Amino acid sequence: MRTANELSKKVRVPEYTVPGPGSEPPAAYLTVPVIVARKAVSLYHEEGAPAARGYLRSSKVGSWANHSNASMATSNSNVLSGFEAYVAADAADGRPTRGLARSTVLDWPAGPLMVRIDVILADSNGLAARAVFWDGPDLTETQAPLVAAPYAAALEQLHPEASLTSIGVWQARRQTHIEVPIEGALRQVQAAQRLQFSL
C-alpha cells in the first residue's frame, strides 16, 4: 500500500519512485532515525520535553550522532537539532494537542493511500493537524499545499463533523515548517491523486 509519506517525497523529489516488490528493505540507518524521531514527538506531547530528550539521548539516534562516520553523525545530529527546533516552534505555537499518530486509509483512484497524521491540534473551535517529516528532501512554499493534500483529506475523514483549519507541513531535519490553510490543501487533492499513479 502506498503512503502519504511516499507521496510527499514524490512532490519534493520528482524522480522518486517507490521500490518495487522484492526490493531490498531500506537500510536501518535510513529507517531507524524516522521511527525514533516520531516516537520522540509523541513522547514530547504526552510527557514533555525532558522525557523526549532522555529517550532521544538513549536511542540509536543519540549514539549515532557521535558516529565515527561523519555522514552518519551529521544525519543523526540533524534529527536531534530538528527535534529541539520542533519543541521551540510548538511552544511558540501554543495550540493544545488533541491526538497523536492517527492513521487512516484513503480510498483513492490509484489505490488505497495510508496516511499517518503525527499531531492533531485544537485550533479555536476547530482542528488542525501536522505532518512531520524526518527524511532528507527539503520543502518549499510552492510544494506545501500538494504535500498537505492527503493529510487534509485524512483529517476530514477522521473528523467529518469538525471545523478544520490548517495542515502544518514540517521538514524537521531542515527546521522548516509551513502552515497550509485547509481549503488550499483540499484544492490539491485531485492533483495528489493523479501524482499517486506515478509512484
What does this structure look like?
This protein has 2 domains: 119 residues, no CATH class; 66 residues, no CATH class. The chain is 48% helix and 25% strand. The protein contains 8 helices and 6 strands, in the order βαααααβββαββαα. Helix 2 packs parallel to helix 5.
**Level of helix content?**
40-55%
> How far is the N terminus from the C terminus?
11 Å
Helices and strands, in order, run as EHHHHHEEEHEEHH
Number of helices: 8
Please provide the count of β strands: 6
Overall number of structural domains: 2
Mean pLDDT, as a whole number? 96
Shape: globular
Largest sheet: 6 strands, mixed
CA radius of gyration is 17 Å
Chart the SSEs and their pairings.
Blueprint: E1 2-3, H1 4-12, H2 28-47, H3 49-58, H4 60-64, H5 70-93, E2 97-108, E3 111-123, E4 126-133, H6 144-158, E5 164-171, E6 176-181, H7 182-186, H8 189-196
Parallel strand pairs: 1-3, 4-5
Antiparallel strand pairs: 2-3, 3-4, 5-6
Helix pairs in contact: 1-6, 2-3, 2-5
What are the salient characteristics of this protein?
about 200 residues; alpha/beta; 2 domains; six-stranded mixed β-sheet; globular
